[in-house]
Structure formats: structure tokens, C-alpha cells
Amino acid sequence: MVDHGLAGLYEEQWPSMVRLAKLLVGSDAAAEDVVQDAFLSVSAKLDGLENPAGYLRTAVVNRAKGWHRRAAVAERHLPDPPRVTGDPEIDETWAVLGRLPYRQRAVLVLRFYEDMSEADLATVLACRPGTVKSATHRALARMREELS
Prior knowledge:
Elements: H1 5-25, H2 28-45, H3 52-77, H4 88-99, H5 102-113, H6 118-125, H7 129-147
């Protein structure tokens, strides 16, 4: 990354962080809010960060988790309308992914969309590598079960 401060980090990381957040929270608007909050957090600490992009990714994942916590009550009372892409297989897969517990969803998104290693996942999710492995196994098993 070329060091241009916050503006350079924003230009370089905004699109990929919004895509990551969208996969974690399932909403374009919420994803942009999550990423904006993460950038605010990074901007306050930017000068002291050794790896601003890594800190930003962790901040996005943590804020997505917080978004799920805050939205849990609302989701119980106001279910989302079904998503329609025109491709039943994609709709069904997205619906199953959306029903996974947050950690399982995050593990699958970070592992297979972001192509992160188990060690990197453990760091971002603040858990042990064994927890990442078991969460991945459980999430894939649940996806297979519900999609079959």
C-alpha cells in the first residue's frame, strides 16, 4: 500500500471492505455504515498502526458482529422479505448463509470469499485456530444439510 494516509487507505480499501461487510451483514446500507464506522476508528489511530489495512478488516468484522447484536431484536419482530435474484439456487444458498449463526457465517465469508487462512481467521475473529476449524466444519455441514 502506498502511504497516503487516511485518504489513500480509503481509496484502496473502501470497495473491498464494503463487499466484505455486505457478505457479513446482508445489507448494502448497513455494510456502508459498518465500514464508515470502521474507518472512523482507524482514523483516530492511523499514525500508530503498523498494518492499517489489517486493523481496518478486523474493525469491519467486529462492527458487523455488533450490527448483528443490535439487529437481533428487530429481526425477530420484522423478518426480512425473501431475496430474489432470479436464480433459485443462489437465493436458497444466500438464505441458508443468512440463517447461520454469526461466527459460522463470518468464518465461511472470510475463508471462502476473502480467501483467508485459518490462522488469519483466528486473528481477525479473536479465537483459536481450532475454533475456526470447528466453526467451518459445522457451518459447511449445516449448509449441506439445509441445501440437500
